[in-house]
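Fold this sequence, please.
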Amino acid sequence: MPQDHRKPVFKAMDYISQNLHLNPTLEDIANSVALSSFHFHRLFRAQVGETVAAFTRRLRMERAAAWLLTYPQEEITGLALRVGFSSSQNFAKAFRAHFAVSPGEFRRRHTLATKSKPGNVGRVKSPYSQCTGQDSGLLAAQITRLPARRVAYMRRFGPYGKETCQQTHQDLLASLPARTPSQPAGTICVYWDTPEITMESRCRTDVCVDIGATEKPGRGIAVQTLAGGTYGVCKFAVFEAQLDQTWEWAFAWLAERGWIKNDEPCYEYYYNETDVSNNYYVFDICIPLQTTPEE
């Protein structure tokens, strides 16, 4: 498939993620990328490996599953209404069809991992909550407002990790040779899905660079705007062996203070001190938060 076809498909995926509460139709989604429903449906299925309806339904159920774990005390009936179902019975039927267990059983079997990149912050205090300084590599942590960022990006599907990010960064570098550094410094990695809930092969990683308000990156490169708002920002300086743990520490730091992640994706921002040749990384973990912490 020509690379240009990726841009409307990626834009449509983002539109679906941001409008799940509206339960958008195929026509709504196709209109958002200015394509006919018939043409768009064929492009989407070829690129994503799912129909538009299946992708939308999966994201809706995965968000419901994340909410089950984020709000362990909320009654399932209330959660079903929030997700857009008319009753807890209809919700339970759809949930079981997707996950092969009832919502209640799913909640009992799973504890939301604090390291989940875009997963919600748990409420229970964690043994990682006091990990600061040299042992964790945590240099600073704060709750702050971040501006919206307009970025050029490439997207890959598959397990989160160094290999996916490095390959995608190389592809982006090849397409933006004048702007993208050979090191990841200045790049942003966006994580859309919750690996404890989403199949690894379906997880979405975007590798991005900031661009100006009117800049057009050219053929084959998509553009999106990362939401501004209240974020938990944790800065780390670690070697490769500690990379996964940084997410545990970041989420635990927020959980200790009662903050809950919202439905926007998390991202990492890499600094100049990063040295891939020595497996040394200096970066921010940026976690979008609900406006006020839970008591």
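DSSP finds nine helices and eight strands in the chain. The beta strands are 138-146, 149-157, 187-191, 204-210, 222-226, 229-239, 266-270, 280-288.
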